[in-house]
Amino acid sequence: MNTYSISxxxxxxxxxxxxxxxxxxxxxLNDILKFTQFILEQKLKNENWEIVPAYNSVTLIHRxxxxxxxxxxxxxxxxxxxxxxxxxxERFLWRLPVCYDLEFGIDLEEVSGRLGLGIEEIIKLHxxxxxxxxxxxxxxxxxxxxxxxxxxxxxxxxHPRPKVIKGSVGLAAKQTGVYPQxxxxxxxxxxxxxxxxxxxxxxxxxxxxxGDKVQFYPIERAEYDLHKIEGEVGIYKxxxxxxxx
Amino acid sequence: xxxxxKSGLFTTIQDGGRYGYLNKGVPVxxxxxxxxxxxxxxxxxxxxxxxxxxxxxxxxxLLFEEETFISLGGAQFSATLNNKxxxxxxxxxxxxxxxxxxxxxxxxxxxxxxxxxGFQSPEVxxxxxxxxxxxxxxxxxxxxxxxxxxxxxxxxKISELKxxxxxxETVLKVxxxxxxxxxxxxxxxxxxxxxxxxxxxxxRMAYQLEEKILGHEISMLTSATLPGTVQLTPIxxxxxxxxxxxxxxxxxxxxxxxxxxISILAQKKFGDLISFKLT
Lengths: 245, 279
What we know:
The complex is a heterodimer. Chain A is built from five helices and 14 strands. Chain A is an alpha+beta fold. Chain A has two domains: 7-81, Gyrase A, domain 2, CATH 3.30.1360; 91-243, Cyclophilin-like (Cyclophilin, Beta Barrel), CATH 2.40.100.10. In chain A, the strands form three sheets. In chain A, strands 5, 6, 7, 9, 10, 12, 13 and 14 form an eight-stranded mixed β-sheet that branches. A four-stranded antiparallel β-sheet of chain A has the order 1-2-4-3, with helices on one face. Chain A has a two-stranded antiparallel ribbon with strand order 8-11. In chain A, strand 3 and strand 4 form a beta hairpin. The two termini of chain A are 18 Å apart. In chain A, 39% of the residues are buried. Chain B is mainly β. Chain B has two domains: 2-146, no CATH class; 171-278, Cyclophilin (Beta Barrel), CATH 2.40.100.10. Chain B is 10% helix and 32% strand. Chain B has helices spanning 34-43, 185-193, 259-266, and strands at 2-6, 12-14, 52-56, 61-64, 68-77, 80-81, 84-85, 92-94, 99-101, 105-115, 145-146, 171-176, 196-202, 206-209, 223-224, 229-232, 238-241, 248-249, 253-257, 273-278. Chain A binds chain B through residues 9-15, 17, 19, 22, 24, 48, 50-59, 61, 63, 134-142, 144, 180-181, 198, 200-201, 205-206, 209-210, and chain B through 19-28, 124-125, 133-135, 175-178, 220-224, 226, 228-229, 246-249, 253, 256-259.
């Protein structure tokens, strides 16, 4: 059941890179996730493999032992051609609250001017779509989200800020995302998400997985403060619904 | 407890690193110079990934509050125990109240202090390795204490190890990275003919090199990066990701360092020279 033409390349002795056609497409991402799940569950079970899926690629890493590239490549190609019977992992649409107050949305006015859109319109556009998580990286819990409306595309700031606060929601080129921790950053900040994207104290520190979807919804400042308090005492519940992949 | 009377420039706890969270963007972390850190653990008959103290450039002054056994490895400092010189790669008995002072850095950049059974600082996501936003601390401060289990007797199988010092090595063995094939002949020539010097932008996340090669206009989708991945920026800057490096990136990954090359590079500081050798 060969869906795409895939290419396999060595990436040092501990890793191997599998690439799908060079496109940002949900069908490709779904094929990557399905194949990765298939080999991890049925072919490489009980081996210490780690995987990093992102956009059109997945990297398989085995830190403890070197990979025999040629034979493993052939094996992966054979497995890709096999009929795959797996029960796809559950995937979720997460609803994430964002406070777009100017106190958080420090670039909202500038973005509004440059895009020629009113602030209300920007919020409406930003919250109207569910975004697909095409990758997690750059910082622990940082999501690469795809599907930003064209009208919200804006270049990153010419001078990155030395400090962007945790939870900041930003726009840059074709991307939108949430800073999971304080960090330097060059994105245009339009709001702040009240839900922590990464909590190292939890066994599963990042509730979102690659392949999930995220939709933002606007909240008032009072609600934001309430979420923060609920989060601190551990009673805040994030809204999620199951989606069919 | 081990008390850090003076913490030194950048002293951290490091072990074998974090497994299983790369897909959530959590870097591997762990000791930068795996080769040296594993040797001190071996001498102490610890697990090879037991937590050690990683000491960078300016060493700490340490007070041991309980008996134990230690071993020093990696970058050479003129270290003294109660004012007497301490040998490297040798099991040393520690008495309550002993003071270890790291003196001057003589060779290399990162030194390792192994302790019998490893340091017992809290584990977060399966590792004790310091990493800001995961562990509470980024590095030790003056007056900090680190937990260890006291040991009164230990008869090591080998009490001293002759380690081939690689601290003077400058050649980094590399294999082609995923985007190696996109390099032009001119870029390849500059990569393998010239030496490069370490810029002042060097830390546990990445080492940047001072000299640039020709840039490029390659645009690629974000994809995984590893410790030892050499990235080429559009203006021709070379960035070598290290143990705390980000797990994904959007710059072409032109080379990949061997495990040993990562250890060699971890011992380099601002101004040191390196060269790449394709294997």
